[in-house]
Amino acid sequence: MENLVNMIRLSKSCIGEEEKLAVMKVLDEGFLGMGSEVQKFEAELEVFFGRKVVCVTNGTAALQLSLQAISVGLGDEVLVPSLTYLASFQAISATGALPVACEVLKDSLTIDWRDAETRITSKTKAIMPVHYAGGVGPLGEVYAFARAHGLRVIEDAAHAFGSTYHRKKIGSFGDIACFSFDGIKNITSGEGGCIVSEDLELIQKVQDARLLGVEKDTESRYLGLRSWDFDVFDQGWRYHMSNVMAAIGRVQLQKFPKFSERRQELARYYDTKFNDHTLIKNLNLNYDEVVPHIYMVQIQGLKNRKLLQKKLMDAGIQTGVHYLPNHLLSFYKNKRAAFLPLTEKIYSEILTLPLHPEVSFRDIDYIANTLIQAASEDCI
């Protein structure tokens, strides 16, 4: 177990007394499950996005329920970048559908729709662009591609809460956007996630499905009641958010302007350390538009990432790798995605550096200097 006391942590939850008091209020009221606190959080998120919102237990559930609500199921296929967290693939396969791994664009690490186009079959029902590190890449082109092929779009926006595209918030436009509120995201509810869409039929289906498929049980829960005389028409899951989670999320949403500004200024400062480096490259995102969840660098010619990470750990710097491509995992290996050379090359060279509101500029100076020195010794 790593000693994190004096470590510059890769990521962390940033909560204070306000969140603790909000949780205590729910505990004192004694209704811990899904109720009025969830309803209030959803209403506040609807103001934030300008669209209907359904809160669920995590971002993976948000993706799965969205896919189920648009009738993606057994035998269907969904296009998805391989360079994403396992949750994207698991949400697809949980419906019985096949995740079809696609290449990413080298500049944004978002899905390469041209590569995706070569993988379309008669079974393809949707595309799942993943907003890597908070950036969305050429999202307009992805939507144009989807329209041309009659595909639904489920945006995995777990990294992109607060990011914008052409001055519009991610989630405020398009088909379906799914967000994560787990402990280290741009805002947290401890665990949790949400689905955002203007498709009212989808919203109703997700509301029912998160409560075991019980028809319109949401209305009862908001009133602190249970449905005892009900019907069920579709497969449901126990994926609803609790009042405890929503209480944390509501406070975090109020703090988000401060969180987002801090994340953006930290990422900009990181950029100044690497913009002119010959071998260590950043994503070069526009942090006027992007609220970054992670800060990733690509170290060209990196030979021994584990050694580099050990050197950084020994120096008190925790790092990560976002992510192991899913097509290399035993459960998802298949001939359709046997060769994704760009994704595999990028994976071999990436490293994620600490980014959260409690990182300081002095920390970044130290991290960057240590990384540059360590990388130049014998890791490249």
Helix tally?
A: 12
CATH topology heading of the largest domain? Aspartate Aminotransferase, domain 2
Strand order of the largest sheet: 1-9-8-5-4-2-3
Largest sheet: 7 strands, mixed
CATH superfamily of the largest domain: Type I PLP-dependent aspartate aminotransferase-like (Major domain)
- What is the typical, i.e. mean, pLDDT? 95
Write the layout of secondary structure elements.
Blueprint: H1 17-29, H2 36-49, E1 52-56, H3 59-69, E2 77-81, H4 86-94, E3 98-102, H5 113-117, E4 124-127, H6 139-149, E5 152-156, E6 164-165, E7 168-169, E8 176-180, E9 193-197, H7 200-209, H8 217-222, H9 243-274, E10 280-282, E11 295-299, H10 305-314, H11 341-349, E12 350-353, H12 361-378
Parallel strand pairs: 2-3, 2-4, 4-5, 5-8
Antiparallel strand pairs: 1-9, 6-7, 8-9, 10-11, 11-12
Helix pairs in contact: 1-9, 2-9, 3-4, 3-7, 9-12
Overview of this structure, please?
39% of the residues lie in helices and 13% in strands. The protein has 380 residues and is an alpha/beta fold. The protein has a seven-stranded mixed beta sheet with strand order 1-9-8-5-4-2-3, sandwiched between helices. It has a three-stranded antiparallel beta sheet with strand order 10-11-12. A two-stranded antiparallel sheet has the order 6-7. Strand 2 (77-81), helix 4 (86-94) and strand 3 (98-102) form a beta-alpha-beta unit. The model has no long low-confidence stretch (mean pLDDT 95).
